Amino acid sequence: MATDTDTAARDALAERLFGAALGAYEIMTVHLGDRLGLYRALRERGEATPAELAAETGTHERYVREWLEQQAVAGILKVDDAGAAPDERRYRLPPGHGEVLIDRDSLAHVTPMARFGVSFASVLPDVEEAFRTGGGVPWEDYGELGRDAQGDANRPLFANLLGSEWLPAIPDVHERLVADPPARVADVACGAGWSSIAIARAYPKVTVDGYDLDESSVELARANLAGTEVEDRVAFHLRDAGDPELAGSYQLVTVFEAIHDMSQPVEVLRALRGLVAEDGAVVVMDERVADVFTAPGDEVERLMYTYSVLCCLPVGLADTPSAGTGTVMRTDTLRRYAADAGFADVEVLPIEHEVFRFYRLVA
Ligand SMILES: C[S@@+](CC[C@H](N)C(=O)[O-])C[C@H]1O[C@@H](n2cnc3c(N)ncnc32)[C@H](O)[C@@H]1O
Hints:
Bound molecules: S-adenosylmethionine
Number of strands: 9
């Protein structure tokens, strides 16, 4: 027989999942506003009726009217004349909301998470199948939306923090990057390339080689590089970082949010030892997950486990053999991979960020 505690737990979960479902549906409507340029057009115009916004964005007025009403009801947009006829109401983007929805360089920008959600949903049947077969889902299959979401989710962090806070917090690395002769940086698993571009912008002497094995990501990185004014110091290469023939003498090797995605992290880490100069540094940024499994977990842990189930684990298992790490790569796991790859130590760097942790791999 259900106790009062059971009933309260039932009601709390039902309420929580209802809120989560509502949030998931609303985030999809945010995605539509992003993709169709509705938010951008609203911000440029200041305010608009459904017909004006539809004309501006090349969309159909009836759909736009419904979307505007939904956005206002959800509290994302404002309508000052709610009592007017539906086609005469004027909608606007409140100050501050534009930054969250549109500004790609703002640390408050959240729209890439909507893109992630839609990308994850698009491969959900494949993930379901992978649960049955034990196979995986290649990163490529998450499509343009997945690549864009990954690139744009980290872009504000790289643009605002990497060169001004994170690398300066590693004094010897920072000093080497500003010194002569100009340092060479290898940005391994560079994805959309924003980290490579941010390093080159922050350190005007360095040259950066970005490596990634995903062809579409390398193409995207090259497209992102165009017009940045660091084109002469940044190059992107289609390359598996686990290739034992990869050799170099880089003063800094970075791997941002990617070790946990790799099917063969030990092989890649071993290859990094051949990439870094004798006096160089290997810096890894990965998820700031807890040191031990704790349930229930905090929001970061919950977020990382959803990424893991929906994306990183299936991506990691798309190759065989695979370490099958998943997003929740705890510090001990990285220590084990690094030791197996021949590194003497892994230092946790004193860089504070709520989602990411920084490590230095010591040869
Ligand atoms: C989560 S994304 C991170 C991308 C980028 N560093 C960022 O922070 O946005 C992981 C990236 O690792 C790349 N990757 C995975 N295994 C790799 C390997 N063995 N060599 C090079 N790149 C790899 C994937 O193609 C993908 O672009």
